[in-house]
């Protein structure tokens, strides 16, 4: 469940150890204990950086019995798939079944993930405390929504502790009215004089009560300010003078300590702290790679033992991080004193993470280090791996951050095109396609470009144009390309031509692996099966596609829509049929490709009429409105006509294979232009005949094919092998 499964990742789900000198703060601990006793669903610890939030929660839980799960959040956890993977991993030690439950539910959507967490924790008898630390780094509404659902549906034995610099966008007012939230605020976390005296180790430093009170007053009880003030106290000289001149607002403390604390260190120590500040988490080997040292592990353990602002992230003394305030101060000083070095440090960190197999941290550091082309290479080369994990949001976020690199990076443009296409952003997909076509001068990504181009045509309801693209396709090298070559032919009704491509896509996707192609390819096969009367095989194939998508977290992919539509038309269970039909429409709307959505709506209407569902008429009308806007809807238009006829909404269309009369050579010449977007006047110009002549030939073509218009004529001619 944990991405990469590496030691670096493991620290995110390990509760940090309290500092060696830890102050038990009874007045706050009692409030936290009371929140558990009152069965509050949420404990919100909300205060600015350096207020002591994480230290308070970690120390409190270290002295309690019971199960604790901890997630140390970073910015990348805004991806819902990554976020819930870490939540499951943090809970796994206490509730072993949760990893499998969440992995299964992930494919059905994040609402189902919340249900899985709730149900699995409910089966665990003991109390479980789940801590989400640094929650302010989450900026994705989808994550906020599901966490709030977890709070609302939580079992009585689960308490959620959220530590954050800013209030999350939950409906806190409602939680307060229902007594479902306990809150610890910045004012609560301020150290009083006695606590400040302990934190400063006043007796050892020779601080009298007046000096402590003054420092406490000037820092307003701010934990980080007190700690930093203690570190900056002169070892020799007039302590009272230092205290008297010490300023207390956050910015002045930052300005003062950035100068005074760093100036108290020798040059090597100062340089190493500044260099290490570019890292979110630190290990010995990583420090050595970035700082050019050979004693990184010993150095980290030493400074963690003497500096409360360096925090151990595991119990083995392997991974550490700076207190956020100290990290920010160090970064500011690095930017001030050696701005050109910052990128070099990030680049070195990127290389270390890349060589260590830690893809996402490598990309982050390469972006920060100005090595954006290398970051783009990593994103493009590993896009399938990320998408296999359901990390579409992460891929799109990387592309956005890479900015104008996209304008010159062919492979990234292809990834951008496909990613925006499958998420229904067709305008972006078209722009990315045009860029990829311009940049791919060597034809390296020709297959993916061909496939994307054809799928965009289907999305716009133009099967003929899609078919023209795939008929002039380059050599097949990837499963996605083979899937499109087969899929477009299926939607054009060329089922026999489609099957070899789909079989090849199936085989390639399984061996790659490419979970998206492996899930979607059988959907096209199922449509071919049901359209050729192989009902039992169609259902089996559709269910195989759905099962594979469930297993690999693609259940919510819009491209699975028609698998549900096929199940709806092939089951004998009325409830299952209606549910599957509606599910098909629901998914198709997420990426409103015209051909797919109209086919899903026609299927749903067909099933709904059979079971007297009141929504049947509206779905049929919507399908017709889409078909009428399509240049060439392919088999979707033909199927809709059958549904309309079957339920008494239109005349019965001619059966496939019926030709009232053979077409003349002149009519065949006109017929070949009907799949294009040329008007009748433009067709006349191409054939050097009058407009009236073309109109006459079209009327004759429609009569002989037993259809009532241009679009059904194209599909009928295709079915009869005339096109």
Question: Could you describe the 3D structure shown?
Answer:
The chain is mainly α and about 725 residues long. It is about 65% helix and about 5% strand. The strands form two sheets. A five-stranded parallel beta sheet has the order 2-3-4-1-5, with helices on both faces. α15 (about 250-265) packs across α19 (about 325-335) and α40 (about 690-705) crosses α41. The protein is elongated, with a radius of gyration of 32 Å. Residues about 1-10 have low confidence and may be disordered.
Q: Which terms would index this structure?
A:
723 residues; mainly alpha; 5-stranded parallel β-sheet
Quick recap:
The chain is mainly α.
Please outline the major beta sheet.
Answer: 5 strands, parallel
The end-to-end span amounts to: 50 Å
Rg calc: 32 Å
The neighbouring-strand order within the major sheet is: 2-3-4-1-5
- Helix amount: 55-70%
Tally of separate helices: 41
Estimate the global geometry from the Cα principal axes.
elongated
Structural category: mainly alpha
Which residues form runs of ≥5 with pLDDT under 50? 1-8
The percent range for strand residues is under 5%
Number of strands: 7
On the 0-100 scale, what is the average pLDDT?
86
List the helices and strands and how they pair.
Layout: H1 7-10, H2 26-37, E1 42-46, H3 53-62, E2 67-72, H4 80-92, H5 98-106, H6 110-122, E3 128-133, H7 141-153, E4 158-164, H8 172-177, E5 181-185, H9 186-189, H10 193-200, H11 202-205, H12 209-218, H13 223-232, H14 239-245, H15 250-263, H16 267-276, H17 284-291, H18 296-306, E6 310-312, E7 320-322, H19 324-337, H20 339-355, H21 359-368, H22 372-381, H23 383-388, H24 392-402, H25 410-422, H26 426-439, H27 446-459, H28 463-471, H29 479-491, H30 495-511, H31 515-531, H32 535-551, H33 561-570, H34 574-590, H35 594-610, H36 616-629, H37 635-646, H38 665-671, H39 680-687, H40 691-705, H41 710-719
Parallel strand pairs: 1-4, 1-5, 2-3, 3-4
Antiparallel strand pairs: 6-7
